[in-house]
Amino acid sequence: MPTSKARISAIGSYVPKRVLSNSDLEQMVGTNDDWIVQRTGIQERRIADTGEFTSDLCVNAVRNLQDRFGVSLSDVDMVIVCTFTPDFFTPSVSAQVQQRLGIAQCGAMDVNAACAGFTYGLHLANGLITSGLHQKVLVIAAETMSKIVDYTDRTTCVLFGDGAGAVLVEKDVERPSFLAFHLGTEGKQGINLYCTNLSLQMDGHELSRGGRLVQNGREVYKWAVATVPPGVQALIDGSGVETEDITWFVPHSSNLRMINTISEKCHVPAERMLNSLIYYGNTSSATIPLALDQGVHDGKVNAGDKVLLYGFGGGLTHCGLLIDWGIGY
Fold first, then answer.
1. Which of 87, 90, 183, 318 might form a disulfide with 312, Cβ 3.0–4.6 angstroms?
2. Following CA atoms 79, 86, 215, 116 in sequence, which dihedral angle do they give, to the nearest 10 degrees?
3. 328 pLDDT exceeds 90?
4. Is 134 assigned a catalytic role?
């Protein structure tokens, strides 16, 4: 890839206050704590209030970023929001964020790559800055999954939660963050993970109605464990960095069984993997920034660390990035 000229310079996150525990779910659907933990690793997740939407989570994550790093957003020239649970079809979540944060002159766009959204958003930000078209890009990944989850389906409702993460990406030719990328799409697998909208047909298949998330967990699992490890290897091969030089592996936090299998196939020890599953559940595009920010908060992720991010999910899409962590330089 062309030599990057972009660095991740700040990070923030936000999760709603309401906690939905496994014991709470026991009262709602036929499940129990042992079943959930054994199959997913999740103990609880956060749920947005009735009047709390993706744009609200985005704004709170950015304000957390500002409070911690003291950065100005007045010169941000692009806002990218990664989500597939927008408040509206239009206006975009990114346009609402621009207005609420009072950023005067910037572009705004939403990116829908589902659980790979954050890595796709970072990939776009790096391209915009490295090309010279933009100087300072705000990338936010946020989802209110609780608003599309079917709480009568125990195979999916136990997985998902709500949350948001935000990073600032700025021009920096001396200490760029982006070392390599690998991405791909297998659209024929889209039938295995979808949420209906205007159309109720896909490739000749009649879809379930109701605007609720539908997932064939078995097929998504098979696709992920077959697709991500070769993608990780391709990313490493193209970077000149050895697997043992990777400080942290941060895959999309789908479920613990899946990412443990992926980590093992990638020959990355479990102790070098970060996830946000246990207390936040699967927050789709937000899982990676939530895991990263927790790692920063805990003093695990530090300047100069080699961090491999890999998002994968609805589409079915995947995108991996190798990052030289730049916060703290």
1. 318
2. 0
3. no
4. no
